[in-house]
Amino acid sequence: MTTTLTEQRQPQKATHRERQRRSRQRARRHNWACGLAGWLWLVVVAVPLYWTIITSFKAKSRYYASNPMVPSKDPTLDNYRFVMESDFLRYFLNSVVVTAGAVVPAVVFSFMAAYAIVRGWRMRVLRAVNGLFLMGLAIPLQATVIPVYLIIIRLHLYDNLLALILPSIAFAIPLSVLVLANFIRDVPKELFDSMRVDGATEWTTLWRLAAPLTRPAILTVTIFNSLTIWNGFLLPLILTQSPERRTLPLALWTFQGQYGVNVPAVLAAVVLTTLPVLVLYAFGRRQLLSGLTAGFSR
Amino acid sequence: MSSLTGHRSRREPHSILPWLAVPALVVFVGFAVVPLVGVFALSFTTWDGIGAIHPSGLTSWRAVLTDPGLPHALWVTFLVMAASWAVQTPLSILLGTFMAGRQRYRAVLGVVYFVPLMLSSAAIAIAYKALLDPNFGLGAGLKIEALSKDWLGRPGLAFGVVVFVVSWQFVPFHSLIYQGGVQQIPKSLYEAAQLDGAGRIRQFFSITLPQLKYTIITSSTLMVVGSLTFFDLIFVLTEGGPADATRVLALDMYKRGFQASLMGPASAIAVILVLVGLALALLLRRLGGRDAGASQLEGA
Description:
The complex is a heterodimer.
Chain A: H1 3-13, H2 16-28, H3 32-56, H4 60-63, H5 78-119, H6 124-138, H7 145-154, H8 161-184, H9 189-197, H10 202-213, H11 215-230, H12 234-239, H13 248-259, H14 263-283, H15 285-292
Chain B: H1 2-8, H2 17-20, H3 22-42, E1 45-46, E2 54-55, H4 59-66, H5 69-100, H6 104-113, H7 115-118, H8 121-131, H9 138-142, H10 155-183, H11 187-195, H12 200-211, H13 213-227, H14 232-237, H15 249-259, H16 263-288, H17 294-298
Antiparallel strand pairs in B: 1-2
Helix pairs in contact in B: 3-16, 4-16, 5-10, 5-13, 10-13, 13-16, 15-16
């Protein structure tokens, strides 16, 4: 079953020598088609990123005359200053509030539900709940935005950050429950039994036993949901209106609408809004990537 | 699972377990299940998004089903799905196989490969919009005629750009899935094939591809169902234009509902979107005997 887990454990199990042997074997079987595709794709990925970064440091007045692939001789931070003056700090804070406000309850609620589903599998109610969440995986949730919009209006939450938080939690639940349940299922039954013998309640077992033992999965789910919500565009687009409520992706879009001709400034905004995620990427690449494929790696 | 069940049945009937699922259930029902039912209900009403909602029977459905815009949107959705699948799958398999190797330089390459995964669709679309600008973009700056086309201004080109940018964004994700799949293929299979004198290409087609069967199904399911939800990227890049060349279902729903204030017809489109999504998930499940999500739970 949960191959994500086995995959994460494998590298620890493989001894150093075994790994060396394997890599030598790989190296001998050199694969030209894959190698070519690999390098070509690197260029395809790197060129737009490189262009975006170097252009964001060019002065607006010199941009049109310069060679687009050559970095500016005297790089300027003016574009970044201009973006910061356009209220991006506020948009950044909005994104932080929405992401943190949605991810924490989403993960806590999903963990509790996953625990209940695994431990209470004999109860028909909980199997039905599980089925409901699974259904949520097959349905494109974007299709529900019109009623979500209606509900948010009726709750008088339109143009309020809470309007972004509530549906974000709901959309995050199905996959989170699935992944967490898979990991809780791997906790040996004997550990649960011994907790019970010690007189621990389900509530204590949940937090004292299941949570610490499934920490990698909790981290994975947290990262996956954070990225999804941080990068979300549709919900802010339809559920907020005033500039003070914009989150970063939406702010980026309106910024381009306003200053589209000022290419260096637009690209500075792109770089600035992705900077927090890239800093996290630099520090925790492994966790981020395993978080991204969450339950999907085979 | 049966041992667990047997052991559990000795417990007291008033377990707190069901209560633990309540918070997740409440939010999910409130903001996903109710809206899902609601979208069916709203498709039988007339609503401008601000005023009162009036029941209007089949008016919205009649309007949507007789509008030539619907077959067009379905067709574009299908084209985006098919083209992005056809571009991404071979590339992801090649790249996944490439990354499954363990040389150090591949690890270095890996750092750059995955950057697109971290970026929001909005940021990617905005950077590409600037990059592809016929007057101020990269092609114009390099003074290369072939690259300074009006990429987003012509229907055929714009469609190609959408497929390209989608691939640029999601190929890393799928190659990551394939990397995991390739690493799980037993090395003994290749060794045996080598003894039998099978060449690299032969090995790829008779070992790697068949062994990746479930990975291909998982990845394809995610690509196909995921392609229904390419809203942000297309919205920011082209807004569905030019001449509706990139107006996929999700965009059609948004434009009818939130731009033309026709929430009834937009809800009907949303219902169609849900049905298409479900049909595709079921179809792919039939094809492969399992699907991305449920299989993992069933296997548990």
